[in-house]
Amino acid sequence: MRKDEGTATTSAELRAHNLARLLRAIHDGGGQLTRAELTRQLSLARGTATVLVRDLAGRRLIEELSGVADATVQRARGRPTGVPSSHPQGPVALAVDLRDDSYTVAAFELTGRCTVLDRQERDAGTGAGVLADVADRLRAASRRFAGRVVGVGVAVPSPVNGGTMVQPTLVDWQDIDVAAALGPGRAPGPVLAGNDATLAGLAEARRGALRGVSVALHLHVATGIGGVLLSGGQPATGAHGSAGEFGHMPLTGGGERCRCGCVGCWELDAGARGLLRAAGQAERGDRMLQAEQIIAAAATDRGYGRALAHVAKALGRGIGSLVNALDPEVVGLSGLAARVYDAAPDPVTAGYLSTLMRFRRDHPPALLPSTLGSLSALTGASELVFDAFLTPRGLGAWSAPEQKTA
Ligand SMILES: [Zn+2]
Predict the structure, then answer these.
(1) Crossing angle between the packed helical segments 302-326 and 345-355, to the nearest 10 degrees
(2) How far is the centre of ligand 1, averaged over its atoms, from the C-alpha of 166 (Å)?
(3) Which end of the chain has less Cβ packing within 10 Å, N or C?
(4) How far is the CA of 265 from the centre of ligand 1 (A)?
């Protein structure tokens, strides 16, 4: 018996702090860690961990499943070690991937399990109409998960400053405060907005290809190109939260004017628009879908094959320049960047090596395609919500919904 632990847990503050730490570790571990592993990771006494797990389970934040993977350990010790996981009535983060031509709404459980609820193209509607639509979908989702929604994370196609879209791709989103447009009173819980590419990188650092990487550069290509430098898993977002607009650097030359106000931007060559243009296609509807169709057809259509190779080389050239500037350990790729690299690795690599400084060429930082696929920005948006929730204050506000009687 360790008396010091007994004394420590009488402090309500310390207990709240430990509950938040434990729930955070369960979240970060994706519901895969056993109670024994969590106890070790957090340097908790076994008795303390038992009390904390019981408390979290009692509040329907988690349920403890029997640990199949630990069967041998259980036998050896003669006692069960469960796996704390999402409670079926537990907290839900809603996430929105807002694009100028479409949007997706999804629900995330505490341990990261995602259910896509809705995916819509914008068609001819206005940006304001899209936001009103999204607010409706969030209300519907809130009814569906009665009492369980702890917030809404929104990935937006714009640099953000304090939750406001400061240079969005749609004119009528200019200076829109995302939380004001979707809540309060309209969406359940706090509404937290972030740039889509920054959130995609955050998601890869926490749950994907960039887990455990010391310094990572992440590039997310959708209509344009954005990204983020992550140090120790933390995004470097600049003085105003709007760093990482790599697509608006003249990395591949050219004299054409970009929608951003600059000349010769990288995304004119290496983004979805660049691919459509190289393939001689007009933009219509969801440009990412269009771009993916071109990539899928590139193996059999010579024109599309040339367009893909052109964009792949431009992508690689830009990556080399950024690696020279930022010195990452690896480079993560999501969205169209991952698709282009998967479909045409050789021209990407050739472009990459051509711009990389000589001293780096023997050991160029690896290019790692996303392991989260189309869920990367959504996953990052859900992380914003859980970052706010997995604190003593966030948990203090949680009251489990009434269990439905059978
Ligand atoms: Zn630009």
Answers:
(1) 40
(2) 14
(3) C
(4) 5
